[in-house]
Task: structure prediction
Amino acid sequence: MNIKEDIRPISYIKANAAEILAQVNESRRPVYVTQNGEAKAVLLDTESYEKMKKALGLLKIVAQGERDIVDEKVLSQEDFFSVMDRDIDNIKP
Result:
């Protein structure tokens, strides 16, 4: 992080919005927006934001899987495929 470039007060953002957007899109680094000396928001380029959303989605799936293991909500591979085969056979066209 380059503190001089990556942390900006909201007044600077307001006055230099186009420049900040160009910086975020070129560097792919977030810009932290401060108000009254406190961090209040983060500006990200859209590609980085979408990648972050996908990564969080995957982490949620992993966390759910771990929770299922702890709660013993699991089937053996053989049992799982037996259930799937039975369910497929019961589908009426």
User: Anything to note?
Assistant: The chain has five helices and three strands. The longest helix spans residues 46-70.
